[in-house]
C-alpha cells in the first residue's frame, strides 16, 4: 500500500509539474501582449502617418512582430530539436542528473526574463530557448511514470503530454495578473522560487535511475525508500505483462532472438511517414501560435481590447488540453487490448494488433488538424473561437499520440533515441514558420490566404500515414512474419 501511495503521489505531482512548467512557451501569444505593453522592441516601429492624430491607437509594427515571431521560432525549434540530446542525457545519466539540469536551465531562464526590460529585450532570445530546454526535460523525466501503472501506460503518457500543452495557460495567468497590477518581474521571480519544489520532488518522489517496466515486486524509490532495488531490474526486461508488447514482438514475429538495429528503424518507411505526419501538423500549430497576436490585430483592425479578449479566449482553451489528451491514450489502450485478445484467439501476431490500434488515433488527429486548418484559413474573427477549440484538441492528440505510437510501433530499447530523433527532425521543419511569417508580412501584404491554402493541401498528405499503417497491419495479419 505504501508503494501504491508513492506511485500516486509521483503521478499527481508529475502532472502538476507538467501542467505548471513544462510547456509554458506555447502560451507565447499572451506574453507577447504583455511585452508589447511594456514596449519591448518598440523602437523598431515606425510612425504611421494615418494614425498621427490619434495617440490611443498603435500602428501595426511589422519589425516588432517579426522579432517576437523569431523568438518563438527559436524557442519552439529548441523545444523539439533538443529532445534528442536531452533524451540522450536522460538515458545515460538517468533521472536525477537530467532533472537537475532541467532545474538549472528553467531557473536561469525565469530569472533572466524577470530582470529584463524594454532596453534589454534582446535577452529574450536566450531566455526562451533555455525555458523550453528545462521544460522538455521535465516532460521526458516524467513520461516514465507511466511505467508504474501497467496497462494504463499509454493513457498516462497522453495525459502528461496534455498537461504539457495545458501549461501554456500559465502565461495567460501572468497576463491577467499583469493587467491587475502584478508586475512581470514578480511573476517570473515566483516561477524561479518554485525551483525549490522541483528539487524536493527530484529527491523524494523520483527515482535516481529509470523506472523499469514491468515493475519488480515491492519496487520503491526516492531518498525515503533507502533501498537500491530501483537499479536492479531497470533495463532489458521483456515487456509482456498486461498486454504490453515485448521489443521482439514489436519488431515483428520471427526476429525474437536477433538484436534490432536502431538505424534499421530510423530509416524505415514507417518512421519516415510518421515524421511527415508529425512535421506538417506541428508546423500548422507553431505557425498559428507564433503569428496569433499579429493575425488577431489585423482581424480586429488594431482594437487592443478585442485582441486582448481573443488572446484570453485562446489561452483558456489551451488549458483544456490536459482533459482532451487522455482520450487519445485511452482509445489506443482499449483498442490495443481488444485487438490483441482477438489476435490471440486466432493465433496471429500481437504486433499486428498494436499497429491496428494506432490507426484510428492517427487518422482522427489528421482530421482534427484539417478542420482546424480550414477554420484558421477563413478571415472571420468570431470563427476563431472554433479554431481555438479544434487547435487545442488537435494539438493534445498530436503529441500524446506521437509518443504512444512510438512506444507500440518500435522496440522499447530504441524509444528514447527514436523519440528524440523524431522531434529533432520535425524541429528543422518547424523553422519554416519564420520565412512563412516574413512572406505573409512582406510580399503578401498581411494576407495569408494563399499560404494557408497551401498548408491545407499539405495537411491532406498526413492522411497517408494512417492508411499505410492500416495496410501494414493487413500485410502482417495475412503474411506473418514480416519486417519493416
Automatic annotation (TrEMBL):
GO terms for cellular component: basolateral plasma membrane. It comes from the Eukaryota. It is a multi-pass membrane protein. InterPro entries: MFS (IPR011701), MFS_trans_sf (IPR036259), SLC43A3 (IPR027197). GO terms for biological process: hypoxanthine transport. Its main location: membrane. The chain crosses the membrane at residues 6-34, 97-115, 121-145, 157-178, 271-289, 309-332, 353-379, 385-406, 418-437, 449-470. It is found in: Membrane. Residues 229-255 are annotated as: Disordered. This is Solute carrier family 43 member 3. The lineage of its organism: Eukaryota, Metazoa, Chordata, Craniata, Vertebrata.
